[in-house]
Amino acid sequence: ILLLIRNPKDVATSYYHFSNGMSTLPSYDTWDDFFVAFMTKKMPWGCYFEYLSKWNKYADDENVMTITYEELKENPALGVKNLAAFFEISLTEKELQTVVERSSFQSMKKNSQKTHGAFGNILFRKGGISDWKNLFSEDQNAKMDKAFEEHVGGTKLGTKLKYEVYCKA
Prior knowledge:
The protein is mainly α. Helix content is 60%, strand content 5%.
């Protein structure tokens, strides 16, 4: 099982744009309205912190590999190597480079009309890291940090996310 996790602040930011782009999901007049809904567990798919908390009990299972979006963005080749090793797939150097190139956000976005139709424009927006800094107020940042600590701060997944997001930033 591959468990891909991401900085909750970027999850909220991406979900805000995604939700406002999908007519079947609730849309929000402002970021502030969305932030309140996100933090008060009023998202159609539930609370991201609770999701992380539930997965945390499986984080040490030998059949679970946890990787962060941030790790994959920082070093895509190493990420692909680790994934291939976990799934016991041998790759030549050429195959590795092909996977890295074809799985890059830019490549997937470029091909999104072919692979996802009109949905591609909504699904593939920026693909970056730290876009949350363009939306979060200082107060929202503090509230998110507090919620993170309360839900997953001392857990394995929380520690992994904190390292990737705060220590490497």
